[in-house]
Amino acid sequence: MAVDSAAGVELLLDVGLYRKITGSADVEISLDGKRWSPRQVLLARHSPSPAELDRALASAAKSRYDGVYFVVGTAGSALREAAERDPRVAYAAVDRGVVSFLGTIYRTGGDHPDTTARPARVSWTRLAILRLCALRPQDPLTQSAIANRIGVSHVAVGKQIPALGGLIERTPGGWRAPDRAACWDVFMAEYPGPQGLVSYFAATGEPAEQLVRVERAVQARPQGQLIVSGDFAADFYAPWRRPARVIGYVSVEPPVERYGFAAVRAPDATVELHVPRDPTIGVMSRAAVLSNGDEERCYSDPLIAAWDLSQSTGGDVESAVAELKDRTMREILWS
Does residue 75 carry a pLDDT above 50? Predict the structure, then answer.
């Protein structure tokens, strides 16, 4: 079992607690669904020491958090003892299916094999450059233009270009990819997913109708925006299979329960909403006018859509991803 922030937050539901995702590393926890405790989610490579616990609590105290929610493989004695005596300390021990909240231990059933949490450092800039180069058959881009397209500084781009090896080359007009398909393949092989936190929901009705309801829930919040990915984005760029699951990116979990959805475990979900850690997803998304000519829908770029689609189930997923790649190489689907 992989240990990540999303697994730790989803474990709250498994043990019978309530949770609301309010940011890529923010969650509110409740015993009864009425009184909520905002917590900073901290994914730890190892169970924290007393000194690390003190630093985490000091940092959380400077913000709106009530405390911290550590996600670890196995909880060490320092973390267990701190959670017993200090209500500001909560944790999820993913290996054991255990959550400690407000001094009480909550457990799931079943076996949980031993694993080790190893959160890796991710260069979102490098991965975004790969996406940009795979998607653009047009003229080369300067370093500043690349930075503008992916939402980072030109200095950040300059630091990552050497790490791309021969995937991009300098020309008199700027940087370009001599083999765009290679950029696509490397991205798909190396992308760790958007990380951050994810919520799963289910409802009755056709997937397209559910998507509309999710959009309404997102728009009910000020400046709320849904970035549609996976099945529906792939169907927009390169129709191949019938969309079966709504996958989207939001800045905060919307109140979808008011629109007929219920929180469920991942295998039962018809809707998957991410609050991503990858900061380039929103910057590289694009709005498109719907067929009715009056409304717009925001879609992730084709490569994020392809990655999300590749994580789906179904015998036609591989061919749908291949069709999206082929069409991206032949046409300008994103600019």
Answer: yes
Q: Which two tokens stand for residue 334?
A: 């994103």
**What is the spatial distance between Cα 103 and Cα 86, in angstroms, rounded to a whole number?**
7
Q: Which fold has domain 5-107?
A: Trna Endonuclease; Chain: A, domain 1 (3.40.1350)
Reading the block at residue 78, the tokens are 């320092």
What's the count of helices (H) and strands (E) in the chain, helices before strands?
12, 16
Residues 6+ away with beta carbon under 8 Å from 207: 231, 232, 243, 244, 245, 246, 270
Q: What is the pLDDT of residues 254-297, one digit of tens each?
A: 999 999 999 998 889 999 999 999 999 999 999 988 776 667 89
With a CB cutoff of 8 Å and minimum separation 6, the contacts of 106 are 15, 16, 17, 98, 99, 100
List the chain domain ranges: 5-107, 124-190, 197-325
In angstroms, the CA 195 to CA 26 distance is 13
66 near 41, Cβ under 8 Å?
no
Q: Which tens digits make up the pLDDT trace of 101-160? A: 999 999 986 444 333 334 457 899 999 999 999 998 878 999 999 999 999 999 999 999
How many angstroms separate the CA atoms of 330 and 189, rounded? 21
State the average pLDDT over residues 308-320. 92
319 CB-near residues (< 8 Å, 6+ apart) = 240, 241
Say which residue the tokens 């950029």 belong to: 183
* pLDDT tens digits, 223-257: 789 999 999 999 999 999 999 999 999 999 999 99
Q: Determine the CATH number of domain 124-190.
A: 1.10.10.10
